[in-house]
């Protein structure tokens, strides 16, 4: 758990009047960090509401969410009745949002006091900026990879999969995807893409690009959204002055489930954006390599995945007994 000093500054500053923000949190078998996430959000200035999309959680978490919503009218619960995926869950949350701005927040991410207003100021001070992300940090304060990235092309995916860049260190043509290995950034800069763990956009601009692509069940939704924004003439900002803390991998789900959807989303993403600029065989090759990666990882994680499935089954049975 992170302890923060309260920020006593007024949210009304150089960025103009305070806007009201709808935070959208999509949850699926999320761990204990979920409570810390919502607690931090409810302490944010500028917050209008927190829309929780319950894609599936254990009985204890659902009961806690119900109690929290009953105690705080800013918590709004939506349940599609099944796991519809992250992108579709975000779009469902947006359909119910009443705020002028949307903040997409992972359920294992913690926002220090003043985060929402700081990012709002970033957007207000940079005309043409449509989307902004925070400085994504690990819980020890080090920069987390994925917070600022290049556009993921088939060539860059090949570099990441093969690490061929080791043969050509510092060569710009073999530049890696993640920019966290570069010098740390503590100011506001324009970047190609930011992480979907935390990002903010106006509801108007989100609607202008059609929101997230529901076909991206898990992963690549943030990169896809950034590309759509850039194609529409918008800019993407990395707010280095807005640190946020990301626990990572707190959901109680089999790793093979995550990797399968990652490979599926990646294949869809590459076919969607790059068939016009890359030979079809290149896109197919990258997709095949990603599926091979999934197969290799799944074999290694099989024992732990079986334990996860057994643990979740026990949780469901316990929940059914409690309900009776």
Automatic annotation (TrEMBL):
Annotated signal peptide: none
Keywords (A to Z) from UniProt: Membrane, Transferase, Transmembrane, Transmembrane helix
Organism taxonomic ancestry: Bacteria, Pseudomonadati, Pseudomonadota, Alphaproteobacteria, Rhodospirillales
Superkingdom, natural source: Bacteria
Stretches assigned to the Glycosyltransferase 2-like domain: 22-168
InterPro entries listed in its UniProt record: Glyco_trans_2-like, Nucleotide-diphossugar_trans
GO molecular-function terms, A-Z: transferase activity
Organism: Paramagnetospirillum magnetotacticum MS-1
Membrane-crossing segments per the record: 278-302
Protein name as it appears in the record: Glycosyl transferase family protein
Gene3D superfamilies in the record: Spore Coat Polysaccharide Biosynthesis Protein SpsA, Chain A
